[in-house]
């Protein structure tokens, strides 16, 4: 099987009934390497910028960040590059910026921390924008959004940074394009405000890892409750289905960048719901590409009502596995 998968790795991600899927890669520090594995892929759907921050002993300077981001944007200037602003806190500690909280996952994480420290946010966004001078592939993604105000505040800071960098670019006779700005959908509260959020952003990216954790009230890293943590819980799937429908209505481009997108069963369910852009770890790309090429979206759509009506994750997996087996 793995030989079969490898031989088709560079083939287009098109289903048997002609539906084109876009596969993107999730990147961290070894971004260059991951891009190499994605020669035929459509770009980076999630660059976790906190990883290089976590591997250092102090905050990287604007220049250091600029160099990192420039290399990424430049590697494939024609491909989408989605850079998420710093998402530390929760399970992602910075040794040089300790946070002690009783409930770190409900605490000072992601956008909450960077909006309280606009200096950190501005330096990072300036570095991203400077790195994008002359290029038009930068997408900026905001993590852990739970209120509309956070989007407004972050956009205001991005605008400020944009004007500063634009001035530099103009003086150097270079062009600075406006980046697309999107939000992570990973806090359940946003599910009920999608229409209003859509008016404020250019794209959505669904973080199924955190969305699952917060919907089910199950710590994603606690082994005592790991049997309860499942993105195949019908409530999680109903939420994902609702999100997709809402994105369709508002016409908002949407990607899924949580782990679910890199699992064959998860990818198929997402396709049945209408998701067409999936971002995953580089090592999942070939497998998911192969699965896509061997299924039909029309058939998957026929399974959706049964999937969403399941009592629990086991039944969901049974339905999809049975389908996959029928496809050989
Ligand atoms: C997620 O929460 O699903 C996600 C993609 O982000 P992270 O795993 O980095 O929190
Ligand atoms: Mg997350």
TrEMBL record:
Protein name: phosphoenolpyruvate--protein phosphotransferase
Section covered of the full-length record: 426 to 753 of 762
Organism of origin: Brumicola blandensis
UniProt record similarity statement: Belongs to the PEP-utilizing enzyme family.
Gene this protein is translated from: ptsP
Transmembrane intervals: none
Entry's localization field: Cytoplasm
């Amino acid at each position: 099987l793995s030989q079969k998968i490898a031989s088709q790795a560079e083939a287009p991600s098109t289903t048997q009934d002609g539906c084109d899927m876009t596969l993107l890669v999730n990147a961290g520090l070894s971004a260059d390497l991951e891009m190499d594995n994605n020669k035929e892929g459509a770009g980076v759907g999630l660059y976790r910028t906190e990883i290089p921050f976590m591997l250092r002993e102090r905050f990287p300077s604007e220049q250091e960040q600029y160099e990192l981001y420039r290399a990424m944007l430049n590697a494939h200037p024609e491909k989408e590059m989605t850079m998420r602003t710093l998402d530390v806190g929760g399970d992602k500690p910075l040794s040089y910026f300790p946070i002690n909280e009783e409930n770190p996952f409900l605490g000072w994480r992601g956008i909450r921390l960077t909006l309280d420290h606009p200096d950190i946010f501005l330096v990072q966004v300036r570095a991203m924008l400077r790195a994008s001078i002359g290029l038009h592939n930068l997408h900026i993604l905001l993590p852990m959004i739970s209120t509309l105000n956070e989007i407004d505040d972050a956009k205001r800071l991005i605008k400020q940074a944009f004007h500063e960098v634009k001035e530099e670019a103009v003086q150097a006779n270079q062009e600075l394009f406006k980046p697309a700005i999107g939000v992570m959908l990973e806090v359940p509260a946003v599910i009920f405000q999608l229409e209003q959020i859509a008016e404020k952003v250019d794209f959505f990216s669904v973080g199924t890892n955190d969305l699952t954790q917060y919907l089910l009230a199950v710590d994603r890293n606690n082994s005592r409750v790991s049997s309860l943590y499942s993105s195949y819980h019908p409530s999680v799937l109903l939420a994902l289905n609702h999100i997709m429908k809402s994105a369709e209505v508002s016409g908002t481009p949407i990607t899924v960048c949580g782990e679910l997108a890199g699992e064959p069963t998860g990818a198929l369910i997402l396709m049945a719901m209408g998701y067409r852009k999936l971002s995953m770890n580089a090592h999942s790309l070939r497998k998911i590409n192969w699965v896509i090429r061997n299924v039909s979206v029309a058939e998957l759509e026929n399974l959706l009502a049964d999937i969403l009506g399941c009592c629990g994750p086991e039944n969901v997996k049974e339905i999809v596995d049975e389908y996959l087996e029928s496809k050989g």
